[in-house]
Prior knowledge:
Helices cover 41% and strands 20% of the residues. By secondary structure, the protein is α+β, with helices and mostly antiparallel strands. A five-stranded mixed sheet has the order 3-2-1-5-8. The longest helix is centred in the N-terminal third of the chain and has 32 residues, at 42-73. The protein is elongated. It starts with a helix and ends with a strand.
Amino acid sequence: MKVRKILNILTVISGAIAVTVTSLWIGKQAYSWLPPQAAAESHLIDDLMSFLVTLGAFIFLGVTSTLMYSVIFHRAKKDDFSDGPAIEGNVTLEVVWTAIPILLVFWIAGYSYQVYEQMGIQGPAQLVHLHNPMGMESAYAATNEAPVAALTEPVEKIDVLAKQWAWVFHYPQTDVTSTELHLPSDRRVSLALRSEDVLHGFYIPAFRLKQDIIPNHTIDFEFTPIRTGEYRLTDSQYSGTYFATMQANVVVESPEEYHQWLAQAASQKPSPANNQAASEYAQASTQPVKTGWTTVAPAASPLVNYPG
């Protein structure tokens, strides 16, 4: 009997170790499920994702392993139709399995809020007190991984206007307007987000950045692109009929290429940009038979130096 008890304990310990190691391995795989990290803040979301996957895998494998262990080693013998032992309850066990999920929820909430604050995402609480904007600390600074140039160079300021259904980017230093967002790599970027009409959402999956844009408010949002390439900006909030057309290219390039692009764009005369929503609306308006609901007319195509 004593030997059997020892074997049971060793089996539980071995199972717990196997479940823990497997869960950690699965959590590491979560990094490969996401797009390449294109902003300094990306690792904050990726680490949180890995943590949640690890925790979820541990719970799933732990529960499944316990069930399998019970079915295999503690099943009734063949032709045994007798009742099991009368167990009325265990207060200690009930307290433990209630307390553990509560602690896990607080752990997840605390970690998530910490990431939320480090990324400088502004929610309703900050919008109520716009005279005291949230301080946004670079993820580089938080991890002590910032290149010296990224910390000493001035912040690049860009105005972002969201409207039904287009993104418009204005670079005040050179008075350049574009429907394509160009950003310098390894330089701090400050966006002044503004909505012309309804609620919009600034979302770049490769940057792991998402910020709601509230009408009649200007929201300052900062981040640091670190990977050159072309990415996609989408509206994360449903903003009406032609919501799916509200996308824009995001081009991250070296500071030299970025300033060359600004100089080239500044030399071009402003012209109306192509607007897919306006084109589709015009086609629908000319149809003899109306199919679909009445919709808001898209905003006029913006005048830009660089249409993208």
